[in-house]
Design a protein that fits this description.
The chain is α/β, with parallel strands linked by helices. It has 8 helices and 10 strands.
Length: 263
Amino acid sequence: MVTLLSHDLESVALRTLAIAAGRTSAGGPVAVYGLDFAAGSLRRLEPLPHVGSMIGGGGDIERINRLFGLLKAELEARGNRFAEATASTIAEYRALANRPNEPRILLLIDGFTAFREDWEVASGRSNWYDVFRSILSDGRQLGVHVAFTADLARPRMALVVENLADFLQTPADAALVELIKQVMRSDHFLVADGETASWNSSWPVFAEMKNSTRGLLLQPDTIQGDILLNTPLPRLNRAEFPPGRGMMVAGGKVLRVQLPLVE
């Protein structure tokens, strides 16, 4: 799942993801849906053959309800089918169930802040916001992904990429490398996560990220500071690093931190 925060450049990034999704071959087919709580730019995508409804915010409550109902049913159905096939990812499911055309689903939300304000606690809508939370927590392994924009204190932007390795050798790979380069040259903020082993990769998307000397290493080994962030870590005892504890590295300085865990 990719999460894009702030606007203009970010709306362009959402459209780029949607267009790239229709040009995939090795990554399999992708079906794209969207909620536009911003300037309406996502509606330009509707003529594309792999794009479903791009629903405007505000008055389109019934259409949004139907979309979340469709996604909820899809999550439940895929959960059962993937379990029967003993598949933990959509790639495994396609192979094990001999269903190479099982599509990934990409949900775009332009203007997440407005969406959350309208739907998180409102009567008759909060239950569908809970469906959205389920997509965020359970969707990735079932092939259902979310990308969204949200306003921050302007003009700064943050770009957050979850599990960077998922985008290797996909249509989004080259576009993501270029986007990372642009963000690195700006005053915006970029966060990407992934398993430690994947960061040793020489793929361009990882090389661009490792040009930075700032990062958070969770449950690290001592050597990883030098390898990943060009900053030596003090000698570490893994027993002192339960889940959520790690080392924050920035500007050559190292700080031990503890992240809160989601219940």
